[in-house]
Amino acid sequence: MSEQRTYIVLLGVPGAGKGTQAKLLEQSLGLPQISTGDIFRYNLKHETELGKLAQRYMDRGDLVPDEVTIRMVEERLQQPDCARGAIMDGFPRNLVQAAALDRMTAPYGGVKVAPLIQVDDEETIRRITGRRTCRTCGAVYHILYNPPKVAGVCDIDGGELYQREDDKEETVRNRLYVYYKQTAPLIGYYFAKGLLREIDGTQSIEEVQNALIAVIREAQPA
Question: Binding residues for AMP, per the UniProt record (predicted)?
Fold first, then answer.
Protein backbone atom coordinates (compact mmCIF):
# COMPACT_ATOMS: atom_id res chain seq x y z
CA MET A 1 0.00 0.00 0.00
CA SER A 2 1.15 3.57 -0.71
CA GLU A 3 1.86 6.12 1.99
CA GLN A 4 -1.15 6.93 4.20
CA ARG A 5 -3.04 10.15 3.47
CA THR A 6 -5.78 11.95 5.37
CA TYR A 7 -9.03 12.22 3.40
CA ILE A 8 -11.92 13.91 5.20
CA VAL A 9 -15.50 14.03 3.87
CA LEU A 10 -17.55 16.91 5.29
CA LEU A 11 -21.29 16.19 5.40
CA GLY A 12 -24.26 18.43 6.19
CA VAL A 13 -27.27 20.18 4.72
CA PRO A 14 -26.85 23.31 2.57
CA GLY A 15 -26.08 26.18 4.95
CA ALA A 16 -24.51 23.95 7.62
CA GLY A 17 -21.22 25.82 7.23
CA LYS A 18 -19.21 23.15 5.39
CA GLY A 19 -17.42 25.67 3.17
CA THR A 20 -16.49 27.95 6.06
CA GLN A 21 -15.26 25.03 8.16
CA ALA A 22 -13.34 23.48 5.23
CA LYS A 23 -11.41 26.73 4.70
CA LEU A 24 -10.52 26.88 8.40
CA LEU A 25 -9.45 23.22 8.37
CA GLU A 26 -7.30 23.93 5.32
CA GLN A 27 -5.38 26.50 7.38
CA SER A 28 -5.12 24.45 10.57
CA LEU A 29 -4.35 21.04 9.02
CA GLY A 30 -2.46 22.07 5.89
CA LEU A 31 -4.74 19.99 3.68
CA PRO A 32 -6.42 21.50 0.60
CA GLN A 33 -10.19 22.10 0.48
CA ILE A 34 -11.52 20.22 -2.55
CA SER A 35 -14.74 21.93 -3.63
CA THR A 36 -16.59 20.58 -6.65
CA GLY A 37 -17.77 24.12 -7.40
CA ASP A 38 -14.17 25.34 -7.60
CA ILE A 39 -13.18 22.37 -9.76
CA PHE A 40 -16.03 22.97 -12.20
CA ARG A 41 -15.24 26.68 -12.46
CA TYR A 42 -11.56 25.92 -13.13
CA ASN A 43 -12.28 23.38 -15.86
CA LEU A 44 -14.88 25.59 -17.54
CA LYS A 45 -12.71 28.72 -17.38
CA HIS A 46 -9.61 26.98 -18.75
CA GLU A 47 -11.64 25.02 -21.33
CA THR A 48 -10.04 21.72 -20.39
CA GLU A 49 -11.18 18.53 -22.09
CA LEU A 50 -13.43 17.75 -19.13
CA GLY A 51 -14.59 21.36 -18.96
CA LYS A 52 -15.69 21.30 -22.60
CA LEU A 53 -17.46 17.97 -22.01
CA ALA A 54 -19.30 19.38 -18.98
CA GLN A 55 -20.20 22.53 -20.94
CA ARG A 56 -21.90 20.46 -23.64
CA TYR A 57 -24.23 18.92 -21.06
CA MET A 58 -24.88 22.29 -19.41
CA ASP A 59 -25.63 23.96 -22.76
CA ARG A 60 -28.36 21.37 -23.31
CA GLY A 61 -29.75 22.03 -19.85
CA ASP A 62 -28.73 18.57 -18.66
CA LEU A 63 -27.05 17.63 -15.40
CA VAL A 64 -23.35 16.85 -15.71
CA PRO A 65 -23.06 13.04 -15.31
CA ASP A 66 -21.34 11.55 -12.27
CA GLU A 67 -18.66 10.11 -14.55
CA VAL A 68 -17.50 13.59 -15.62
CA THR A 69 -17.56 14.99 -12.06
CA ILE A 70 -15.65 11.95 -10.79
CA ARG A 71 -12.95 12.36 -13.45
CA MET A 72 -12.55 16.05 -12.53
CA VAL A 73 -12.15 15.20 -8.84
CA GLU A 74 -9.74 12.38 -9.63
CA GLU A 75 -7.52 14.74 -11.62
CA ARG A 76 -7.65 17.30 -8.79
CA LEU A 77 -6.61 14.72 -6.18
CA GLN A 78 -3.52 13.91 -8.26
CA GLN A 79 -2.19 17.48 -7.90
CA PRO A 80 0.93 17.98 -5.72
CA ASP A 81 -0.93 19.88 -2.97
CA CYS A 82 -2.98 16.73 -2.27
CA ALA A 83 0.10 14.66 -1.45
CA ARG A 84 -0.96 14.40 2.22
CA GLY A 85 -4.71 14.13 1.64
CA ALA A 86 -7.65 16.51 1.22
CA ILE A 87 -10.82 17.94 2.74
CA MET A 88 -13.77 17.00 0.52
CA ASP A 89 -16.41 19.76 0.42
CA GLY A 90 -19.39 18.94 -1.82
CA PHE A 91 -18.07 15.59 -3.01
CA PRO A 92 -19.32 12.92 -2.86
CA ARG A 93 -22.93 14.02 -3.44
CA ASN A 94 -24.38 10.53 -3.87
CA LEU A 95 -23.55 6.85 -3.39
CA VAL A 96 -22.04 6.45 -6.88
CA GLN A 97 -19.58 9.25 -6.15
CA ALA A 98 -18.87 7.84 -2.68
CA ALA A 99 -17.89 4.47 -4.20
CA ALA A 100 -15.65 6.29 -6.69
CA LEU A 101 -13.95 8.23 -3.89
CA ASP A 102 -13.32 4.95 -2.04
CA ARG A 103 -11.64 3.62 -5.18
CA MET A 104 -9.50 6.75 -5.61
CA THR A 105 -8.35 6.85 -1.99
CA ALA A 106 -7.99 3.10 -1.33
CA PRO A 107 -4.24 3.02 -2.17
CA TYR A 108 -3.66 5.66 0.53
CA GLY A 109 -5.76 4.19 3.33
CA GLY A 110 -9.19 5.44 2.19
CA VAL A 111 -11.43 8.06 3.78
CA LYS A 112 -10.40 8.54 7.41
CA VAL A 113 -13.48 10.26 8.83
CA ALA A 114 -16.81 11.76 7.71
CA PRO A 115 -17.93 14.51 10.12
CA LEU A 116 -21.63 15.41 9.86
CA ILE A 117 -22.30 19.06 10.77
CA GLN A 118 -25.85 18.88 12.11
CA VAL A 119 -28.20 21.83 11.69
CA ASP A 120 -32.00 21.46 11.65
CA ASP A 121 -34.01 22.50 8.59
CA GLU A 122 -35.57 25.65 10.08
CA GLU A 123 -32.15 26.95 11.18
CA THR A 124 -30.82 26.17 7.69
CA ILE A 125 -33.65 28.18 6.12
CA ARG A 126 -32.99 31.10 8.54
CA ARG A 127 -29.28 31.07 7.74
CA ILE A 128 -29.66 31.06 3.96
CA THR A 129 -32.74 33.25 3.48
CA GLY A 130 -31.23 35.91 5.76
CA ARG A 131 -28.26 36.46 3.44
CA ARG A 132 -28.02 39.78 1.61
CA THR A 133 -25.42 40.52 -1.08
CA CYS A 134 -24.07 43.86 -2.28
CA ARG A 135 -24.88 44.47 -5.94
CA THR A 136 -21.61 46.32 -6.56
CA CYS A 137 -18.84 44.74 -4.46
CA GLY A 138 -20.39 41.33 -3.68
CA ALA A 139 -19.98 41.60 0.12
CA VAL A 140 -22.33 39.27 1.99
CA TYR A 141 -24.32 40.17 5.10
CA HIS A 142 -26.99 38.48 7.19
CA ILE A 143 -30.05 40.30 8.52
CA LEU A 144 -29.79 38.45 11.87
CA TYR A 145 -26.19 37.33 12.35
CA ASN A 146 -24.15 39.96 10.47
CA PRO A 147 -26.41 42.93 9.63
CA PRO A 148 -25.14 46.05 7.86
CA LYS A 149 -24.98 49.30 9.85
CA VAL A 150 -27.82 50.67 7.72
CA ALA A 151 -30.51 48.23 6.55
CA GLY A 152 -30.22 47.45 2.85
CA VAL A 153 -26.95 49.37 2.40
CA CYS A 154 -23.43 47.91 2.12
CA ASP A 155 -21.00 49.11 4.81
CA ILE A 156 -18.10 48.99 2.33
CA ASP A 157 -19.26 50.97 -0.69
CA GLY A 158 -22.86 51.99 0.01
CA GLY A 159 -24.18 49.61 -2.65
CA GLU A 160 -27.70 48.18 -2.55
CA LEU A 161 -28.09 44.86 -0.73
CA TYR A 162 -30.37 42.26 -2.33
CA GLN A 163 -31.46 38.66 -1.82
CA ARG A 164 -30.09 36.31 -4.47
CA GLU A 165 -32.48 33.87 -6.12
CA ASP A 166 -30.48 30.99 -4.58
CA ASP A 167 -31.19 32.45 -1.13
CA LYS A 168 -34.98 32.67 -1.43
CA GLU A 169 -37.03 30.28 0.72
CA GLU A 170 -38.58 28.33 -2.16
CA THR A 171 -35.12 27.68 -3.63
CA VAL A 172 -33.68 26.71 -0.24
CA ARG A 173 -36.49 24.23 0.41
CA ASN A 174 -35.88 22.69 -3.01
CA ARG A 175 -32.14 22.40 -2.23
CA LEU A 176 -33.03 20.61 1.00
CA TYR A 177 -35.31 18.25 -0.93
CA VAL A 178 -32.47 17.42 -3.35
CA TYR A 179 -30.11 16.94 -0.41
CA TYR A 180 -32.41 14.48 1.36
CA LYS A 181 -33.09 12.60 -1.86
CA GLN A 182 -29.52 12.32 -3.19
CA THR A 183 -26.99 13.15 -0.48
CA ALA A 184 -28.53 12.10 2.85
CA PRO A 185 -27.98 8.38 2.06
CA LEU A 186 -24.25 9.11 2.54
CA ILE A 187 -24.93 9.43 6.27
CA GLY A 188 -25.90 5.75 6.40
CA TYR A 189 -23.06 4.83 4.06
CA TYR A 190 -20.36 6.32 6.29
CA PHE A 191 -22.11 5.20 9.49
CA ALA A 192 -21.93 1.61 8.25
CA LYS A 193 -18.20 2.05 7.66
CA GLY A 194 -17.69 3.39 11.18
CA LEU A 195 -16.49 6.75 9.84
CA LEU A 196 -19.43 9.03 10.71
CA ARG A 197 -18.92 11.58 13.49
CA GLU A 198 -21.73 13.96 14.46
CA ILE A 199 -20.94 17.62 15.19
CA ASP A 200 -23.42 20.16 16.62
CA GLY A 201 -23.53 22.79 13.87
CA THR A 202 -25.50 25.30 15.98
CA GLN A 203 -22.38 26.11 18.03
CA SER A 204 -20.14 29.07 17.20
CA ILE A 205 -17.83 28.77 14.18
CA GLU A 206 -14.86 28.36 16.54
CA GLU A 207 -16.57 25.66 18.60
CA VAL A 208 -17.55 23.71 15.47
CA GLN A 209 -13.97 23.99 14.21
CA ASN A 210 -12.54 22.71 17.49
CA ALA A 211 -14.97 19.77 17.47
CA LEU A 212 -14.01 18.93 13.87
CA ILE A 213 -10.30 19.03 14.64
CA ALA A 214 -10.85 16.75 17.65
CA VAL A 215 -12.62 14.03 15.62
CA ILE A 216 -10.08 14.31 12.79
CA ARG A 217 -7.12 14.00 15.18
CA GLU A 218 -8.80 10.97 16.75
CA ALA A 219 -9.22 9.33 13.34
CA GLN A 220 -5.64 9.90 12.13
CA PRO A 221 -3.26 6.95 12.38
CA ALA A 222 -0.67 7.12 15.10
Answer: 36, 41, 62-64, 90-93, 97, 164, 175
